[in-house]
């Protein structure tokens, strides 16, 4: 720290520095092909950036404008170098202590939009807000910063970070300064001259040391002496709005940001410090008007993280005015109207800092959360999401005074009554929200892939057939004693022939994969069959239990069976092999007691316990539709995004008949580099349709 920095700021810098370094990246020209983690990229540095959500990097527009006015900004591919696993160390060539990765990214948008047509000359300042949002083109495990929810920064001590090349070594460098005020109506932040902003640091994060949150993006440095200018991260709210009925890019990214930190806070898969942990350790703010009033005036860091996560679970607000109205009702006075409009439920929390009257921020935020829980959302929330938010409000209020607890209960009752009156008044009008697909699986024959493993060695037998009914099976090709690595190539020609026979002009045929449960992790959906495109992107893929000489009770064929009930919907997903990230084994009694429209969800390795035993138990309990997944590459990765995304997918699907096609659409989105679909990587749909019986014969036998 520099001379003159307070002891509290020095301690805050020490705590925050590893977290910020781990999320800061170097922006440069795109690598050739696909660079793997551990690969080095030594091209010239354009500038810096930082992860604000999984799959999303924020930087300055002028950073990705390297190359002159002839270069198109939106859609341009760039290179992102980072530290995989969140190691806080330097970049390639900087004596890094962690594994360094390089990945390609694509510029999704720039601010202001006019920069695409009109840019300043070389060396001149680009128009504010001078921001660019980059979509990472591959799923990578990486740390993300904590963004402020305040639209106007408070003038205090800060730190800034970026990529420097001092003495020929690339590294992420952190410096400290004091904020000197704002400019351009609050769109920019003036940085003090305590230290120099070096070339390459443009696009890096600026961190408020008192509150432990990123407030700005480094934009420019002064030519004479230190100091410079940063862009307020609140300017992200000026991203182009989506079409009517769609979720805008800003809301998507901020939702992913809040859910990332919520998952990190809840996870016990690793012992690394999270932003929530560090927020709890930051020194108390000096000159804090509420510092002497205890925990009754503000939410704890854990409570704030949880609240942001629960708000992110809900559908986005219908309008900015809806957020502002609820914030005003909770605050007790009109919030600042000169700030960028609040677009998300999280932005509403930023309007509730330092409210007037008794209770402080904690009371205002609990009132706001109560009102959000009973808001009239544009589309139905995920099952139980609004109730979960209210349960949290009620539990959190227990540590506050009784009058507030009573007030919140009465506030919720009024809100529920008002919402019911509004819904009755709208009875008969068209229901808003995304339309559900009406069709299910394509009619006609399917392609059947059967694989049998030799338990005593790493080889397997396989067969590809056309399945048009239990008595109409046409074998196409087969093989024996093939290694798992060679299986995609061995079966490729037979699969292509099967698809040619079964596909129609209207639809691609279903691929059914019949394997033992320990092979449910077989990545068949990723096999390239035609055009180098994964087969799971081109067509629906489902897994089946193979016929083993016994009759399956997959829901029963009767109208009261589980299969018939789950086809009717609505669907209800239940975790079968984990609870809040901890593994568990479901008992037969527990499985038998679930409602018939339940879809069991398993997130662990199918070839290992407890999931392997759970797969057999789920089948024995009569469940014909279940979802599992291949374990992620990072064993410390939380399974919460998978469960959350699947819960929303099941709610939107409504009935099981459309699940195979919806999962195909998810794979297509992930293949198209949509970060909002990365949670579905490795997902397997088990589909035991009693009306599509499998061939009843024995596995192939190898040569004697």
What does this structure look like?
This protein has a six-stranded antiparallel beta barrel. It is globular. It is built from 17 helices and 25 strands. Helix 3 (249-266) crosses helix 5, helix 8 (360-373) packs antiparallel against helix 9 (385-396) and helix 8 runs parallel beside helix 10 (402-425).
What key phrases describe this protein's structure?
704 residues; alpha+beta; six-stranded antiparallel barrel; single chain; 28% helix; disordered C terminus; 25 strands; globular
In short:
This protein has 704 residues and is of the alpha+beta class. The protein contains 17 helices and 25 strands.
Strand content: 15-25%
- The global form is globular
Distance between the termini: 74 Å
The value of Rg in angstroms is 27 Å
SS-derived structural category: alpha+beta
Q: Report helical residue fraction.
A: 25-40%
Largest sheet: 6 strands, antiparallel, barrel
- Average pLDDT rating: 83
Query: In which order are the strands of the major sheet placed?
Result: 1-2-3-6-5-4
Number of strands: 25
Q: Total number of helical segments?
A: 17
Low-confidence stretches: 34-39, 84-99, 287-294, 430-437, 552-560, 699-704
């Amino acid at each position: 720290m520099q001379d003159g920095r307070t002891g509290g700021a020095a301690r805050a810098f020490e705590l925050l520095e590893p977290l910020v370094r781990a999320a800061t990246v170097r922006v440069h020209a795109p690598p050739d092909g696909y660079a793997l983690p551990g690969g080095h990229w030594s091209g010239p540095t354009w500038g810096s950036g930082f992860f604000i959500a999984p799959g999303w990097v924020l930087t300055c527009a002028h950073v990705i404008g390297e190359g002159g006015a002839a270069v198109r900004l939106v859609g341009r591919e760039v290179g992102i170098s980072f530290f995989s696993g969140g190691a806080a160390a330097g970049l390639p060539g900087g004596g890094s202590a962690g594994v360094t990765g390089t990945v390609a990214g694509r510029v999704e948008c720039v601010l202001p939009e006019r920069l695409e047509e009109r840019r300043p000359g070389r060396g001149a300042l680009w128009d504010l807000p001078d921001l660019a949002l980059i979509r990472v083109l591959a799923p990578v495990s990486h740390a993300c910063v904590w963004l402020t929810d305040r639209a106007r920064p408070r003038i205090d001590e800060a730190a800034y970070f970026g990529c420097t090349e001092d003495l020929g070594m690339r590294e992420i460098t952190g410096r400290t300064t004091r904020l000197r005020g704002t400019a351009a109506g609050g769109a920019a932040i003036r940085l003090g001259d305590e230290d120099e902003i070096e070339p390459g640091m443009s696009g890096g994060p600026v961190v408020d040391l008192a509150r432990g949150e990123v407030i700005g993006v480094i934009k420019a440095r002064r030519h004479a002496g230190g100091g410079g200018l940063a862009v307020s991260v609140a300017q992200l709210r000026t991203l182009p709005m989506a079409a009517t009925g769609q979720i805008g890019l800003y809301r998507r990214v901020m939702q992913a940001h809040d859910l990332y930190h919520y998952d990190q806070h809840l996870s016990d898969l690793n012992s690394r410090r999270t932003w929530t942990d560090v927020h709890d350790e930051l020194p108390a703010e000096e000159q804090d008007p509420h510092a002497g009033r205890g925990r009754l005036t503000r939410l704890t860091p854990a409570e704030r993280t949880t609240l942001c996560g629960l708000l992110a679970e809900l559908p986005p607000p219908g309008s900015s005015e809806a957020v502002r109205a609820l914030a005003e009702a909770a605050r007790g006075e009109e919030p600042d109207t000169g700030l960028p409009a609040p677009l998300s439920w999280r932005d509403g929390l930023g309007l509730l800092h330092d409210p007037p009257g008794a209770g402080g921020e904690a009371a205002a935020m609990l009132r706001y959360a109560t009102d959000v829980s009973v808001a009239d959302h544009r589309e139905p929330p995920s099952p139980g999401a609004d109730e979960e938010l209210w349960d949290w409000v009620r539990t959190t209020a227990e540590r506050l005074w009784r009058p507030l607890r009573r007030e919140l209960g009465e506030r919720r009752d009024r809100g529920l009554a008002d919402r019911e009156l509004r819904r009755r008044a709208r009875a008969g009008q068209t229901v808003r929200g995304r339309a559900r697909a009406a069709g299910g699986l394509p009619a006609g024959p399917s392609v059947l892939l059967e694989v049998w493993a030799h338990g005593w060695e790493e080889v397997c037998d396989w067969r590809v057939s056309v399945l048009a009914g239990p008595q109409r099976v046409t074998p196409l090709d087969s093989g024996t004693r093939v290694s798992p690595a060679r299986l995609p190539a061995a079966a490729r020609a037979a699969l292509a022939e099967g698809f040619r026979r079964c596909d129609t002009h209207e639809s691609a045929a279903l691929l059914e994969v019949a394997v033992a449960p320990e092979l449910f992790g077989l990545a068949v959906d990723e096999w390239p069959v035609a055009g180098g495109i994964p087969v799971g992107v081109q067509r629906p893929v489902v897994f089946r239990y193979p016929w083993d000489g016994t009759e399956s009770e997959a829901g029963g064929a009767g109208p009261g069976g589980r299969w018939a009930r789950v086809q009717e919907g609505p669907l209800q997903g239940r975790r079968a092999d984990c609870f809040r990230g901890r593994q568990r084994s479901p008992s037969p009694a527990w499985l038998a007691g679930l409602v018939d429209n339940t879809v069991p969800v398993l997130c662990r390795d199918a070839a290992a316990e407890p999931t392997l035993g759970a797969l057999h138990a789920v089948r024995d309990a009569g469940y014909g539709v279940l979802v599992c997944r291949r374990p992620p590459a990072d064993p410390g990765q939380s399974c919460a995004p998978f469960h959350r995304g699947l819960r929303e997918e099941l709610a939107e699907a409504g009935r099981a008949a459309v699940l195979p096609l919806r999962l195909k659409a998810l794979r297509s989105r992930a293949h198209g580099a949509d970060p909002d679909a990365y949670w579905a990587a490795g997902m397997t749909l088990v589909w035991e349709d009693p009306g599509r019986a499998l061939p009843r014969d024995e596995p192939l036998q190898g040569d004697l």
